[in-house]
């Protein structure tokens, strides 16, 4: 019989601390900018299998804030180190802001097919209460995490999604050849061969997406990172179903124009209309 199964009156009275109480008391003092990894916690969703071997999964890992990488329109991206005694990795932590702190929101138009089932949440969102705003921030984070998982599993070049905890996504930090944070494609000046190589990769990724009847929905040289010779697509919360969403085709057309124009300006003649027609053919 376990101690906890005894009726109250049979429990030994304790004058001294229970010698059998093995409650774990951490002996490490965390600084204000540190926290324990929550990878193992209930309520935290973790990324798809197989988990890459660089991901630190130990529950005793400590996370340290390394500062802000970039403030965006609806989320901020921070650098976060996750470390144990034997290993350390730097991750990207994307933290969604509640709607009132955003500079613009994508909540209309994209969410055609994304309905909220919980009526309390739906009412709160409609009334823009504090609860409603955090539900919405959580929904965008949830949508982005879910999409990253799907796309990663489909072999698309996206950061590996490590975990989702409320409004925060931890993901692979994309770096360049020197281990520096990768620049956005828009900031690069690739030579002709590299431009061709980048276009081939992007074209291929867009074709795979279209074959899945999806469009990124906010694709531009600002949401593509140049990781050395490799391109990585980021910022995917609004990925749209181009067949099921009434605005889907418009998003696909805009994505095509945004990226084709950039490549054309840099000297690689790619025609947005031709690419669009080709992508549409993959979706049906
Ligand atoms: N996994 C990552 N690795 C490296 N850098 C990243 C990563 N994720 C985001 N970033 C950087 O943070 C910026 C903002 O990220 P993201 O585009 O996902 O957020 P956002 O809030 O939608 O931003 P914006 O409003 O600028 O589009 C990116 O442009 C990129 O520079
Ligand atoms: Mg972005």
Automatic annotation (TrEMBL):
Question: Under which name does UniProt file this protein?
Answer: non-specific serine/threonine protein kinase
Cross-referenced SMART domains: RIO
Organism of provenance? Microlunatus soli
Q: Write out the similarity annotation.
A: Belongs to the protein kinase superfamily. RIO-type Ser/Thr kinase family.
Entry's PANTHER family?
A: SERINE/THREONINE-PROTEIN KINASE RIO1
EC numbers listed for it are: 2.7.11.1
The keyword Ion transport is assigned to this record:
no
Which residue range or ranges hold the RIO kinase domain?
A: 37-282
The catalytic activity, as recorded, is:
L-seryl-[protein] + ATP = O-phospho-L-seryl-[protein] + ADP + H(+); L-threonyl-[protein] + ATP = O-phospho-L-threonyl-[protein] + ADP + H(+)
What Pfam families does its record include?
RIO1 (PF01163)
């Amino acid at each position: 019989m376990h101690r906890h199964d005894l009726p109250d009156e049979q429990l030994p009275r304790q004058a001294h601390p229970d010698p059998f109480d093995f409650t774990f008391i951490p002996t490490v003092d965390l600084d204000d900018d540190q926290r324990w990894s929550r990878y193992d916690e209930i309520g935290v969703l973790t990324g798809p299998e197989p988990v890459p071997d660089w991901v630190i999964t130990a529950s005793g890992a400590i996370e340290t804030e390394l500062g802000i990488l970039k403030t965006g329109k609806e989320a901020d991206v921070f650098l976060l180190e996750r470390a144990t005694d034997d290993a350390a990795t730097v991750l990207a932590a994307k933290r969604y802001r509640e709607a009132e702190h955003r500079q613009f929101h994508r909540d209309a138009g994209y969410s055609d097919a994304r309905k909220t089932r919980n009526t309390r949440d739906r009412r709160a969102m409609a009334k823009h209460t504090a609860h409603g705003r955090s539900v919405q921030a959580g929904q965008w984070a949830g949508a982005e995490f879910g999409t990253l998982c799907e796309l990663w599993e489909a072999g698309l070049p996206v950061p590996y999604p490590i975990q989702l905890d409320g409004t925060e996504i931890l993901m692979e930090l994309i770096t360049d050849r020197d281990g520096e944070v990768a620049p956005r494609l828009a900031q690069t000046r690739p030579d002709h061969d590299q431009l061709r190589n980048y276009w081939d990769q992007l074209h291929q990724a867009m074709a795979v997406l279209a074959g899945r009847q999806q469009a990124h929905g906010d694709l531009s040289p600002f949401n593509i990172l140049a990781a050395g010779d490799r391109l990585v697509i980021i910022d995917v919360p609004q990925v749209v179903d181009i067949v099921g969403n009434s605005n889907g085709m418009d998003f696909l057309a805009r994505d095509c124009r945004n990226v084709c124009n950039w490549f054309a300006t840099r000297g690689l003649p790619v025609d947005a209309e031709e690419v669009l027609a080709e992508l549409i053919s993959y979706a049906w």
